Description:
The protein is of the alpha+beta class. It has 3 domains: 38-167, Immunoglobulin-like, CATH 2.60.40.150; 172-308, Sandwich (Immunoglobulin-like), CATH 2.60.40.150; 322-556, von Willebrand factor, type A domain (Rossmann fold), CATH 3.40.50. Helix content is 19%, strand content 31%. The strands form 8 sheets. Strands 18, 19, 22, 23, 25, 26 and 29 form a 7-stranded mixed beta sheet that branches. A 4-stranded antiparallel beta sheet has the order 5-1-9-8. Helix 6 (353-365) packs across helix 11 and helix 8 runs parallel beside helix 9. Belongs to the copine family. Residues 1-21 are annotated as: Disordered. One of its GO terms (biological process) is cellular response to calcium ion. Pfam families: C2, Copine.
Amino acid sequence: xxxxxxxxxxxxxxxxxxxxxxxxxxxxxxxxxxxxxxxxxxxxxxxxxxxxxxxxxxxxxxxxxxxxxxxxxxxxxxxxxxxxxxxxxxxxxxxxxxxxxxxxxxxxxxxxxxxxxxxxxxxxxxxxxxxxxxxxxxxxxxxxxxxxxxxxxxxxxxxxxxxxxxxxxxxxxxxxxxxxxxxxxxxxxxxxxxxxxxxxxxxxxxxxxxxxxxxxxxxxxxxxxxxxxxxxxxxxxxxxxxxxxxxxxxxxxxxxxxxxxxxxxxxxxxxxxxxxxxxxxxxxxxxxxxxxxxxxxxxxxxxxxxxxxxxxxxxxxxxxxxxxxxxxxxxxxxxxxxxxxxxxxxxxxxxxxxxxxxxxxxxxxxxxxxxxxxxxxxxxxxxxxxxxxxxxxxxxxxxxxxxxxxxxxxxxxxxxxxxxxxxxxxxxxxxxxxxxxxxxxxxxxxxxxxxxxxxxxxxxxxxxxxxxxxxxxxxxxxxxxxxxxxxxxxxxxxxxxxxxxxxxxxxxxxxxxxxxxxxxxxxxxxxxxxxxxxxxxxxxxxxxxxxxxxxxxxxxxxxxxxxxxxxxxxxxxxxxxx
Length: 578
């Protein structure tokens, strides 16, 4: 029997996000990055593997590795079962992974012909490997990626097919309502002011706060308003995970009095209103002290309704393409590109800030664009031969076709432009925003979504026109990312971001928030590790894109297209050894 060192789909150590493991009642913040955007299940099949066995066919296994961001070290994530005597395995055991749009997750699939029961892979014959990113799989048509297996020089090693399926529980939300009866009286002059606090349990036995109800004033029999919470936030998709509910009496000074608590689970709650969902509220201290103590009241579930929401991945799987355009600031304030002090300095040994921002964002977005052709624009330069100033020129020198092939093509065109144009000014954003908006305005059916990355060093010169362009663009399928490089003050950019105050122009407000601004200096790793700086930047600037994308689709009532029919591999008679 082949023993697995680690079951497939076992999760990586928890990603600590916004919240500490134990949050006090007062400091609850809406959960953000602490919960994965979703979970996907990867299925692996191979065709025409190498035959390493003399008297029979190979007995293949697939081993999946993920790569750490900082030191690039590969770590084993999981293994499939071994399938006897086949060169065309369809592995049954799946890999379940956390999926974050804003992170680049490098994957490596290694294939071996298993010759003994040893879990040590060096004891088995290597059949080849395949490298890709999780985004590449998800972004492929129908979320199905087919690639050649490589790694053995001079040999055809066959092909691998990896299919990603979003796990359903991740996009369910529940609408619940609770009431309570005969809660303990905690206030000297009036009755209690009760509220509930929900916690989900973690793998290590600690609890994380995930919802707090409103306070109902002066009653021992409160009825709280119905509230909506994602199943992910409530129990991380594990229906049997403990959910702890605490009942408090609200006090103005923040020292809320503990009334009692009870535990339940998603599975219990899903039974809906019934005798199973009436809970005794227990105060352990009182229970320990008083022999006659029964409870501190009861809490009853009044209703439980499951709602399934369409997700970002539903649209991607249905064929929606993300079109990526980059616009680079060529104004004189960047400094002479031949000087090391310039933000555009072409250092032969490392990327400048523009190059880092471009690669960080572009390498993730390119997985969702099937033709990998990206328009690359510049603004604020004097162009040859006549020295006219342009705020919307093609980096590749071809205004009729500003497309570059892949992020490498964009980088090449950027470096070429630096040698041919003269940095000038002023810093005008409106022309490049309007350029992308013209394309976005022609495709409003949900089949395409446009992301414009503007990288700039400074203070914007056409604020009024830019605001107007953003307000107009907020009705279109597009988002704008602005990365500020260099030491300038970027106060004006914060205004464009619209997170605090919705952006407006001449009395018209933006229909939705489509701009995300970040200063690159906030992400620079102190130890000089540029890989970490780029990963941090990408995580922050791209995290809002799926929600901005969904807000456009929701406002327009656009549903995802049906995904292409799933891949059904040819049927083989297989002997499976688990």
